[in-house]
Amino acid sequence: MFRLRRYLKKYILQLIVGPVCKLTEAVFELIVPMITADIIDVGVRTGDPYYVWSRGSLMVLLGVLGLGFALVCQKSASVAAQGFGTELRYDMFRHIGSLSHSELDKLGTPSLITRMTSDINQLQWAVAMLIRLVIRAPFLVVGALIAAMMIDMRLSLIFFGASLLIALILFLVMNRSVPYFKSMQSRLDKVSLISRENLSGARVIRAFNKEKDDCDRFAQSNDDLKATSVRIGRISALLNPLTYIVAQGAIIAVVWFGAGFVNEGELTTGEIVALVNYMTQILLAMIVVSNLVVIFTRAAASASRVNEVFDTKPSVIEGTRVLGEISPEKPAVEFSGVSFGYKEGGKVLRDISFRAMKGQTIGIIGGTGSGKTTLVNLIPRFYDVSGGSVSVGGVNVREYTFSSLRGKMGIVPQGSVLFAGSIRDNMTWKKKDASDEEIENALKTAQAYEFVEKFPEKTDKLILAGGKNLSGGQRQRLTIARALVGKPDILILDDSASALDFATDAALRRSLSRDLGDTTVFIVSQRVGTVRSADMILVLDEGELVGMGTHDQLVDDCPVYREICMTQLREEEMYAPGVKK
């Protein structure tokens, strides 16, 4: 938690004013037992009602002033805690945005969501308690001990013994609780993961009649979380009873021995009442401390998880060079001996080399798991290569800033991801100031204009999160249109026509060829018909480039490509007219 103190620098005033106000309130509380003793020993014993009323009024005044100081402290704690949480959450979100796909895959989306919500909320609560109670509770304990010593040194030994026993109880509970709190947050991650999978994959689960299995899986994780929470609850439940036993035993001892001192005339009745009040204050303060122990042990576990995210450094470091216009004389994209492997697995790509010139269309085809998506993900630097180099415009992509590199590209990933908002909102992701004409042209090229025009709201139609109120083909065409707004220099279509019928797919390819003359287009597909007309086709097989050339060349020279063609085309369709062999 100490490492996160930088987020409190803006709230130094609240960190000072809050505890000072709470400390003042505590001073007033320590004065009250002394006034009570005076009322008993002077006002009641002598039968002086004026003295009782005057001292009683002073107690009321101290209570009102204490309330005022407490409210100021509460306000300071709220401002500091909420400000701390807001800035921490923002920085964490920004840091997560700087991580490459490798780090995001390692940490996991459900875990990151839990850390940004539950863990930071726990830290906010700890900051509030830090201002409100961390100074007040120990001060009350120490102040009550000193006051007890001033009344009678012998009876104050009971206070010291009770305080030491309660402190030992707190230490033992804290020592046992910390591992369980860390474990509980990890189990909360698992529950979050299963919930997210269930909600996002509800249709698949129902289609395979797996509702019961998924409920059983959730119940198992939920039971694990419950079991850990119960263990923590059992340990934490010991705090209040044990502290009460010790404190009440101390009160009994004070009354027992104090009665003898009163009979001998060494102490007054009011002083015994004051000692009991101070013992009660110590008890209440120790209970507060015990709750603080639970809060701060949980906060320590949460801080460890938050710091783990901040300690995760992006493996893909941004360059400083700005990508300008791509010259026609230089390759728009060039792979030179590229190899790549994920950290948790073996090599996915091995020794890939090719050149794509400006305006060319590059088709990428291969079996499932051959590395097609991985290859195109290396162009915008979602990952960094393990060996070799990837160049755009004749310069290694490592040298470019992310904004300038990816700003030249239009990327359509495999998953058709649309965001909540209007169609227009989604269309302006790449170019915020895109005109209606640019959006209309992109929709027409992507074969989406026709169905968008049928909506009564046109481009103002609201889309649900993930585009759930659209068909799969509509979502794909809109994601393609979004990438086309602003005429990118490099367009990457990663199996983005899989939900389109053959006629729409063919119309899309014709419009891309017609409207994007200077754009270098990469088309990843399982369909031969989609990549057949490309200027160059790359054939991947288990991470290796086993063929490169036009359709007709590859049918003759690449057995892997020929085998793919034979599964999708008739013999007479495999060659262009006039070149049948």
Which percent bin holds the helix content? 55-70%
**Low-pLDDT windows of residues:** none
Count of runs of 4 or more consecutive helical residues: 20
The number of strands is 12
What is the CATH superfamily of the domain at 2-311? ABC transporter type 1, transmembrane domain
What's the CATH class of the domain at 2-311, please?
Answer: Mainly Alpha
Radius of gyration from the CA trace? 36 Å
| CATH topology type of the domain at 2-311 | ABC transporter transmembrane region fold
Structure overview:
This protein is an alpha/beta fold and 581 residues long. Among the domains are: 310 residues, ABC transporter transmembrane region fold, CATH 1.20.1560.10; 74 residues, Rossmann fold. It contains 20 helices and twelve strands. Helix 2 packs antiparallel against helix 4 and helix 6 packs antiparallel against helix 9. The mean pLDDT is 83.
Write the layout of secondary structure elements.
Elements (H helix, E strand, L loop, with lengths): L11 H35 L2 H50 L2 H7 L1 H24 L3 H16 L1 H48 L1 H6 L3 H27 L1 H25 L5 H43 L21 E9 L5 E10 L4 E6 L5 H6 L9 E6 L2 E2 L5 H6 L1 E4 L8 E2 H5 L8 H10 L3 H6 L7 E2 L8 H13 L5 E5 L7 H14 L4 E5 L3 H4 L4 E6 L2 E6 L1 H7 L1 H10 L13
Parallel strand pairs: 3-10, 3-11, 6-9, 9-10
Antiparallel strand pairs: 1-2, 1-4, 4-5, 7-8, 11-12
